Amino acid sequence: MTGRLIAVEGGEGSGKTTQARMLADALGAVFTREPGGTPLGEQIRDLLLGTEGDAPCDRAEALLMAAARAQHVDRVVVPALARGDDVVTDRYIGSSLAYQGVGRGLGVAAVAAVSEFAVDGVEADLVVLLDVDTAEAVARLDGSLDRIEQAGDEFHARVAAAYRDLAAADPQHWVVVDGRGTVDEVAQCLQAAVAERLP
Ligand code: TYD
């Protein structure tokens, strides 16, 4: 495989999706997202984030995230990397570690094992954490919140802390970018950080 896989991670309302798209455009990379990125994955996303019907228990949530990821890796990520394309994914394994491992309290090691099974060795070459103030970001959310956005301030504070811990524990793969500033300012910092780490 010759392309590079870059994951953009962060909490809710961090502007992550906009930044991930801009990064993909700048690199001429394939842009994709999780949970989703494939027809099956988008169906799983609806099951995970919908607020109607039977909510998955925490372990079911972790397994459904992993199932969507397995499909995404097999159908989108691996073929693109094999063609030599770079891939930018809006969320990847880091989301499961932060949200299910720490946010839901399932444990980082257990959730990492499930994700490892799902991705079969396809790790991100670089994980960009877009770091914003959690309270501010959650306050920016408006309109109808999905099931995970509704999980509460304490949950989201745990997720934000988990992301910082994950980045600090693995500086070889993670880079933290300050999410404060205008969209263009943040994009410039983010793209510079990626260019430095993946020349
Ligand atoms: P996303 O569409 O990125 O939401 P937003 O743009 O609002 O940040 O992600 C959907 C939700 O799924 C988000 O709340 C995070 C959650 N999620 C997990 O809990 N675990 C995972 O492994 C992934 C990929 C996402």
Question: Layout of SSEs?
Answer:
Elements (H helix, E strand, L loop, with lengths): L4 E5 L6 H12 L2 E4 L5 H11 L8 H26 L3 E4 L2 H11 L4 H12 L6 E6 L2 H7 L12 H17 L4 E5 L4 H15 L2
Parallel strand pairs: 1-3, 1-4, 2-3, 4-5
Helix pairs in contact: 1-8, 2-3, 3-4, 3-5, 4-5, 4-7
This protein binds thymidine-5'-diphosphate.
The site of thymidine-5'-diphosphate (TYD) has 15 residues, from helix 1 and helix 4.
Note down, in words, how this protein is organized.
This protein is α/β, with parallel strands linked by helices. Helices cover 56% and strands 12% of the residues. It has a single domain, classed as P-loop containing nucleotide triphosphate hydrolases (Rossmann fold), CATH 3.40.50.300. A five-stranded parallel beta sheet has the order 2-3-1-4-5, sandwiched between helices. Helix 3 crosses helix 5. The model has no long low-confidence stretch (mean pLDDT 94).
- Please estimate the helix content: 55-70%
Mean pLDDT: 94
Structural class assignment: alpha/beta
CATH topology: Rossmann fold
Assembly category: single chain
For the record, the count of structural domains works out to 1
Largest β-sheet summary: 5 strands, parallel
Q: Please, how many helices?
A: 8
Portion in beta strands: 5-15%
How many extended strands? 5
Instruction: Please state how the strands of the largest beta sheet are arranged side by side.
Output: 2-3-1-4-5
**Could you name the CATH class?**
Alpha Beta
Question: What is the assigned CATH homologous superfamily?
Answer: P-loop containing nucleotide triphosphate hydrolases
Question: What is the CA-atom radius of gyration, in angstroms?
Answer: 16 Å
List low-pLDDT spans: none
N-to-C order of helices and strands: EHEHHEHHEHHEH
Small-molecule components bound: thymidine-5'-diphosphate
Cα end-to-end separation: 17 Å
CATH architecture: 3-Layer(aba) Sandwich
The global form is: globular
